[in-house]
Amino acid sequence: MKILVTGAAGFIGFHLAARLSSRGDTVVGADSINDYYDVQLKYDRLTELGFDRNSITPNELIQSATIPTCSFIQVKLEDKASLDKLFEQQQFDVVVNLAAQAGVRYSLTNAQAYIDSNIIGFTNILELSRYHKIKHLVYGSSSSVYGLNECVPFSTAHNVDHPISLYAASKKSNELMAHVYSHLFNVPTTGLRFFTVYGPWGRPDMAYYIFTKSIIEGSPIKVFNNGNMARDFTYIDDIVEGVVRVIDNPPGGNVSWSGKAPEPSNSKAPYQIYNIGKNEPVKLLDFITAIEEELGIEAKKEYLPLQPGDVTTTFADVSGLFTNLGYKPETVVKDGIKKFVSWYKDYYKM
């Protein structure tokens, strides 16, 4: 297939582009390369895919120097004209939209970035998927949509109408918008609610990355809610495996779906929502211990109250992916942290 992967300079998008290329798909990566976090890391990911920083020019498609079936373009999702040209020229079979303004806390002070990328940008992706008859649109949602929900594990059957950050609200909006296009225009769409993804080439704004850096430097780490937190940490390889399975299985619509007792995760339209996580929450302090043991250094901890926009626990019910696609994440935290720390030391030459 020919697959557009937006957010290809990002953490998940980079790994997905590499995986799809390795199995023989033709991949076009797209990314705005914004400065939400260190752009050098984004360019280094692209270098791993065969794209030299000096060869990247906005809105110009370039070919990978090392992967014959992979190309890349720097483009913003808000730039519909450039996206339309790309869709027209490339005639994609599938679109995987992982480009988004990420981060919960950043959304407290930078609201416009989320509207531009996650709402306007996603609208452009939907419109172009409609007009260019995309066979399957897969897009990134987030565990953050569960908001004030206190029922665990989080199920796609649960109500998600009470988000507690603009980031979460934008992701919930994406799910609603996707259903409209599936219902009105028969665009097959699948939304993936990611649960705390970690691993090599990860995002520097994520807790595990910050913890590792601070512990090595001897700086105190901030432990919010006095450590009474748990996250469904999911290793990147398990996430990519799930995304690939989803790509290959577009929804066809649930013929038994009823508006009298509506199931939130699917529809009569070709529309599907999945949780994608480990299905095994880990206490934050246990996760920190795993990093300490791998580094051989004890962390200096600064205990702080819960931050606005944060939730205390995430726990993914992945029964939908397991039942429909046989998805079963296998990487335990100890092994995942070992691989991340090894990469971190190598990347930063320690």
How does this structure look, described?
The chain is globular, with a radius of gyration of 20 Å. Helix 5 links the parallel strand 6 (136-142) and strand 7 (189-194). The N and C termini lie far apart (40 Å). The model has no long low-confidence stretch (mean pLDDT 95). Helices cover 37% and strands 16% of the residues. It has helices at 11-22, 39-48, 80-90, 111-131, 166-185, 207-217, 236-247, 284-295, 319-325, 333-347, and strands spanning 2-6, 26-31, 62-63, 70-74, 94-97, 136-142, 189-194, 197-198, 221-224, 230-231, 234-235, 271-276, 282-283, 301-304. It has ten helices and 14 strands. The strands form four sheets. Strands 3-4-2-1-5-6-7-12 form an eight-stranded mixed sheet, sandwiched between helices. A two-stranded parallel ribbon has the order 8-11. The chain has a two-stranded parallel ribbon with strand order 9-14. The protein is of the alpha/beta class.
Brief rundown of the structure:
This protein has 350 residues and is an alpha/beta fold. The protein contains ten helices and 14 strands.
The ordered H/E elements are EHEHEEHEHEHEEHEEEHEEHEHH
Lateral arrangement of strands in the main beta sheet = 3-4-2-1-5-6-7-12
Main pleated sheet: 8 strands, mixed
What is the gyration radius calculated from CA atoms? 20 Å
Unreliable segments of 5+ consecutive residues: none
Distance between the termini: 40 Å
Helix content: 25-40%
Structural class by secondary-structure content: alpha/beta
Shape annotation: globular
Number of helices: 10
- Strand elements, count: 14
Look at the structure and give the mean pLDDT: 95
Task: Tell me the fraction of residues in β-strands, as a range.
Answer: 15-25%
